[in-house]
From TrEMBL:
<feature type="domain" description="GST C-terminal">
    <location>
        <begin position="93"/>
        <end position="212"/>
    </location>
</feature>
<dbReference type="InterPro" id="IPR036249">
    <property type="entry name" value="Thioredoxin-like_sf"/>
</dbReference>
<dbReference type="InterPro" id="IPR036282">
    <property type="entry name" value="Glutathione-S-Trfase_C_sf"/>
</dbReference>
<keyword id="KW-0808">Transferase</keyword>
<dbReference type="Pfam" id="PF14497">
    <property type="entry name" value="GST_C_3"/>
</dbReference>
<feature type="domain" description="GST N-terminal">
    <location>
        <begin position="3"/>
        <end position="88"/>
    </location>
</feature>
<dbReference type="Pfam" id="PF02798">
    <property type="entry name" value="GST_N"/>
</dbReference>
<dbReference type="InterPro" id="IPR050213">
    <property type="entry name" value="GST_superfamily"/>
</dbReference>
<comment type="similarity">
    <text>Belongs to the GST superfamily. Mu family.</text>
</comment>
<dbReference type="InterPro" id="IPR004045">
    <property type="entry name" value="Glutathione_S-Trfase_N"/>
</dbReference>
<dbReference type="GO" id="GO:0004364">
    <property type="term" value="F:glutathione transferase activity"/>
</dbReference>
<dbReference type="InterPro" id="IPR004046">
    <property type="entry name" value="GST_C"/>
</dbReference>
<protein>
    <recommendedName>
        <fullName>glutathione transferase</fullName>
        <ecNumber>2.5.1.18</ecNumber>
    </recommendedName>
</protein>
<dbReference type="InterPro" id="IPR040079">
    <property type="entry name" value="Glutathione_S-Trfase"/>
</dbReference>
<dbReference type="InterPro" id="IPR010987">
    <property type="entry name" value="Glutathione-S-Trfase_C-like"/>
</dbReference>
<comment type="function">
    <text>Conjugation of reduced glutathione to a wide number of exogenous and endogenous hydrophobic electrophiles.</text>
</comment>
<dbReference type="GO" id="GO:0006749">
    <property type="term" value="P:glutathione metabolic process"/>
</dbReference>
Length: 223
């Protein structure tokens, strides 16, 4: 049996991509198991009932050395940071944890709002533009203003939430290619993330689903 961490999710980017970026950044050896949407029975009928967790869900993490199973995206991120002994990524001091928690809430709102747009049955160009103006851009401007002062989200220090925000920006640009054209700060921020050596190697590898679907099959706009 392999001693590597196992990470599992549907065969799409979805809420999994920031976790993959984190594990790649931390350089933790891992194995990936993707469940194909077309073969949904493998997860729901076979693996989910057998998963050693009180809260079986996707994504999940398995540690074969300890038999631990972790579900829920944020819990997986916390586990990985602790596993790699990178507590700075989740906040070593109370003020850092407070900063990270606050910005995570903002980024979660942005991700939720763009998800609501993608899954809305009324999705079309007019609806998309109206909803982005109403529910996404106002809060995006606030994050842009924060990044004018600091290069990363935890008052200048890289943290796991940066990978969530980076992926949100990718989704936003895929949905509306001109979305951040007037925000040079955000474009520079994305380049900083992409130029981190471990992230650069990851995005040049076949492990990176560059053109992978962003949302599941029930979304009106899947990306």
């Amino acid at each position: 049996m392999s001693s590597k961490i196992q990470l599992s999710y549907w065969a799409l980017r979805g809420r999994f991509e920031p976790i993959k970026m984190l594990v790649e950044y931390l350089e933790i050896p891992y194995e990936l198991k993707n469940y194909e949407i077309e073969n949904w029975q493998e997860w729901f009928m076979e693996d989910k009932p057998k998963l050693n967790s009180n809260f079986p869900n996707l994504p999940y993490l398995k540690n074969p050395l300890t038999n631990e199973v972790i579900t829920e995206s944020e819990s997986i991120c916390l586990y990985l940071c602790n596993y790699a002994k990178r507590m700075d990524f989740i906040g070593e001091e109370f003020q850092d944890r407070l900063n990270i928690s606050q910005i995570k809430g903002v980024v979660d709102d942005l991700r939720q709002n763009i998800g609501l747009i993608a899954y809305d049955p009324n999705f079309n160009e007019k609806f998309k533009k109206e909803q982005l103006e109403k529910t996404v851009y106002p809060k995006l401007i606030l994050v842009n203003d924060e990044l004018k002062k600091y290069q990363f989200l935890n008052k200048g220090k890289l943290c796991y939430v940066d990978f969530y925000f980076y992926e949100f920006l990718n989704v936003l640009i895929r949905m509306e290619p001109s979305a951040i054209d007037k925000y040079q700060i955000l474009k520079d921020y994305m380049l900083k993330i992409e130029n981190i050596e471990s992230i650069k190697k990851y995005q040049e590898s076949d492990r990176y689903m560059k053109n992978g679907k962003l949302f599941g099959p029930t979304a009106t706009w899947q990306g």
